[in-house]
Automatic annotation (TrEMBL):
Residues 166-190 are annotated as: Disordered. Gene3D superfamilies: Diaminopimelate Epimerase, Chain A, domain 1 (3.10.310.10). This is Phenazine biosynthesis PhzC/PhzF protein. It comes from Streptomyces minutiscleroticus.
Length: 240
């Protein structure tokens, strides 16, 4: 069995919640894309990262059904684990830094997969939402799959505090995905606990720093940067 680490990314203030991430530190053990895809499907995490060069931060990210050019949760967690100033993804170079208890990356919103950002009148409305049917309200992605639905509301607009929930889009054509990343459903659940890419898009739309509570209690921090970049940060815990 290939060795891998399990992290929880975007944890709450007491270290709970967050979403699981698998990281294979020695990507050379699984060099072929098809084998990486199969291994990611076997692990069943929303995202699994294969590290191809730990010193330069070269990474390759997969959900159980597809390869991603970029993933916010994957990059935040892997940057924390490797303790590097930059990650190199197929989408581009991702700046990384640590700031006290938070791990931060800097990325571009256009790297994120399609997502419907739907605002509600109050945090209570978001919390009371029923899980929508797969793909409802989500725009078609270039692949023909559906993007996710990201429901959000202000908890405190002046302070930039947001309450959010994230509902993955339709599973792939086989309908057998277990992924919580990109545009597929998690096996056994219909909602993501923490979604970095959607937070990236919401920050671009609102043009301001955000403190997002998503799912049961995950925390995601964001901040716009010059020239269209966005920082996204959170707590990371090593599970095993």
């Amino acid at each position: 069995m290939t060795d891998y680490d399990v992290l929880r990314v975007f944890c709450g203030p007491r270290g709970g919640y967050g979403d699981e991430l698998g990281v294979v530190r020695n990507g050379a053990l699984v060099p072929e894309p098809d084998d990486r895809q199969a291994f990611a499907a076997e692990l069943g995490f929303g995202e699994t990262v294969f590290v191809d060069d730990p010193e330069r931060g070269v990474v390759d990210v997969y959900t159980p059904t597809l390869r991603l050019p970029f993933a916010g949760r994957a990059c935040v967690g892997t940057a924390w684990l490797l303790d590097v100033p930059e990650l190199v993804t197929p989408a581009g170079a991702v700046g990384a830094r640590a700031d006290g208890e938070f791990s931060w990356i800097e990325a571009r919103p256009e790297w994120a997969p399609p997502c419907t950002l739907r605002q509600y009148g109050s945090a209570a409305e978001v919390e009371e939402l029923a899980v929508p049917p797969a793909g409802v309200g989500a725009p078609p992605a270039p692949s023909g799959r559906r993007g996710r639905l990201y429901a959000w509301a202000w908890e405190d607009e002046a302070a930039g505090r947001v309450r959010a929930r994230s509902f993955p889009g339709r599973a792939d054509e086989r309908g057998d995905s277990r992924s919580g990343g990109a545009d597929a459903r998690i096996g056994g659940t219909d909602e993501d606990e923490a979604t970095g890419a959607a937070a990236l898009l919401l920050t671009e739309r609102l043009g301001r720093a955000l403190n997002i509570v998503q799912g049961g209690g995950s925390q995601i921090l964001t901040a716009p940067q010059p020239e269209g970049w966005v920082e996204i940060g959170g707590r990371v815990v090593l599970e095993r």
